[in-house]
Amino acid sequence: MKLKHLLHPIRSARRIEELEDRVRELEITLRADHQWLAHDPIARALTKRYLCMTIDSWASYAPEAIDQLRDRLRLNPYRQTESIPEGMALVPREITAETGHKVGMIGDFFEHIDESCPECEGAGCDDAQICDLCKGRGRLERPVAVSWTTIKAIHRRVVEIAEGGR
């Protein structure tokens, strides 16, 4: 092990420097199972203030106030600040093929078109023979896939209505 280290001292030194840089970049403050990056100046100031409060006296330590301040400044990325009401969902304003929405929706929506049977021309059931295609009804129900353009238009209209537009 020592021999390998001696064979590659430059590579080892670079690796140590990279690790030290990474540790400096990833200064993380842990409190109440919430993590937030301390490389932001406001976060550093809060961290310094938090440390001063804990050093001064444990009695003056107010974790709720710090959490509220962090939430207000959006420094708690792991805490959900705005809750979504039951039965509601966040959806994008626009659905596009580039974001993968098209793949997920094409083939899921169909219109059922009712048309005359081409074999018996809509005559339906004769006493002599029953049409094999429509089973004597004279009409056929054919599923037709809804176009991507129509799906996008429907989604756009749903978003407009949900946002309060008429």
From TrEMBL:
Organism lineage string: Bacteria, Pseudomonadati, Pseudomonadota, Gammaproteobacteria, Oceanospirillales
Stored SUPFAM superfamilies: DnaJ/Hsp40 cysteine-rich domain (SSF57938)
Top-level taxon: Bacteria
Protein known as: Uncharacterized protein
